Amino acid sequence: MSADDLSLATQNAVFRRIAWRLMPFLFACLVFNWLDRVAISFAHLQFRQDLGITDTVFGLSVGLFSAGYLLCEIPSNLVLERFGARRSLARIMILWGIVTISMAFVQGPYSLYLTRTLLGMAEAGFFPGVILYLTYWFPDAYRARITSRFIMAIAVCGIVGGPVSTWIMTHLAGVWGWHGWQWLFVVDGLPPVLAGLLAYRWLSDRPADAHWLSPEDRATVQQTLGQALGPAQDQRGVVLKSTLRDALANRTLWLLSLSYCMTIMCTGNVVNFWVPSILRASGVRDLQTLGNLSALPHVIGIGAMLLACRSSDRKGERRWHFAAGGGLAVLGMLLLPWSLHHAALTMVFLTLMVCGYLIATAIFWSIPATLLPVGERAVGLAVINCAGQIGSILTPVMIGFLKSRLGGFEAALTTVSVLVALGVLVLLRCTAPSSARRSFFFLPDAKS
């Protein structure tokens, strides 16, 4: 074995050890995070009768979550960079768990608006904060696979979220005089509170603080990351921060933000909030069957995402892998309106859409850290996610409005698919392999 092969084997062993330490916990935290989003889509099927919630009111409540998220997103990411992941992630999870539990006590549209806004404020910074946190531990050549392990929680939530949510709503309805949807919020709110308490003890802010790594392993991580980061760090490994103005003046950041808003968040809103209603429109009436069917596209989506991310890291290529995912999502959404009265076809096209969504999401989040200067990453990742929340404000309101006015999903899904396609084109333009961008975007090959 050559010295280079030995060095690569050592690096792989160290980063594998880090992944086993961090990723299962972060994976579980994202499952808890996305269960909130699955919960509201299933709870809506019951509380719209109990509380008189129309599709327009529901869409607005989903959008208000994003408004609260948008308000606190950049400050939350800056706090994480300043005070560390342990404190920040613990605070975020404990607060969102408490607010989720409080949603069991909403009485009508206005209390729903209030709790959804507070939930967005509480969750702000979690997802981009973890993406930023992972850049402290893993170099570019590993990032698509590592990101896919984190993003996989969204798919797992899609698999277990539907059946578990409908089971809770069916079997706990009437206990202590509460509705099934009330129990759903209580059960979903407890795990993040416990995870937040654990985060402070389990996570380390930086590799230099990781006492569970040997001094040799810490040196390997810092050396590998130092080679990847280059002059953006000083010799002590301290990040040289850019100003907020520098970050916001970066044209690439705004193009990435626009693409994320149009591609990932528009598709994500359909996947995370409207799939139960789409299945019901296709003729599925039984609540438990609906929950089980909603899980199937995510099972296939996990395999598709892992294969795509493995291919992306091996080939050191991002843009066309992202485009392939976005294209699948567009195709699925364009075909869905013509299959809404056929449950089997609806499942096929939902599966295409979910596969494309998961692939595009995982590949996308491996791109910004490669294109943005190190000192701008905290602000940049938050700005990108903020743009996504703007999409989350507008998309559910638009879908709810078009569905209420026109009596179906046809116009809504067609409109969203056009936006997704435009978002793919924006990213392809942003990451075009010109001589100035090629050195940033195409990554070195990493053997597994």
From TrEMBL:
GO CC, one annotated term: membrane
Keyword set includes Metal-binding: no
Any one GO molecular function term: transmembrane transporter activity
Compartment(s) where it occurs, according to its Swiss-Prot or TrEMBL record: Membrane
Pfam families noted in UniProt: MFS_1
Keywords: Membrane, Transmembrane, Transmembrane helix, Transport
InterPro entries, alphabetized: MFS, MFS_dom, MFS_trans_sf
Membrane topology: Multi-pass membrane protein
Name of the featured protein: MFS transporter
Lineage, opening ranks: Bacteria, Pseudomonadati, Pseudomonadota, Alphaproteobacteria, Acetobacterales
